[in-house]
Amino acid sequence: EEQLVQSGADVKKPGESLKISCQGSGYSFTNYWIGWVRQMPGKGLEWMGIIYPGDSDTRYSPSFQGQVTISVDKSITTAYLQWSSLKASDTATYYCARSGVPRTAEYLDLWGRGTLVTVSS
Amino acid sequence: DIQMTQSPSTLSASVGDRVTITCRASQTLNSWLAWYQQKPGKAPKLLIYKASVLESGVPSRFSGSGSGTEFTLTISTLQPDDFATYYCHQYQGYSGTFGQGTKVEIK
Prior knowledge:
By secondary structure, chain A is an all-beta fold.
């Protein structure tokens, strides 16, 4: 079964760092771009960026460039989203999702269940 | 950055109604447009890609149309399971943007 399994919910204080994960299984992980999507409480979806596990080619939305880092460890079929210094405004659910077409970044056909990140003092 | 303007933001409808949601892009997309359904507390679910291609397993009452800068999602006969929020998503050129979402509510 194809799936993306995300790490569990986390609660952090402002200024702390965090790395959340998304492990793919049941398909050829290195051949499909993985994207990250933010959803703030009660709000819509925001496309953050996307990474190709085959060569770690990464593209960011201008809104998130410099705010987060997307990475991948293909040896354990896992993509990551990390912050070096969290803000309260980073409180949101973060989804990882797979591109539906191999080797190109297109629509997102396979989604993780989401990771809730809460940043509060 | 391509901007997506989705309308309406909320839609009140009854079971059996025909429902239409529109998305307008700030630049030509050449059909690189997808539609998703999201229910509270759940991940989005892909409905339509390449503007009009129905994802496997999605009921045929869902359809997509359009090209260039204007796109439409239509639900031909609204069912109880269809009350949810719908998002368009452009995916041209290794970038992406979602529309603001349309919440379909029970009238």
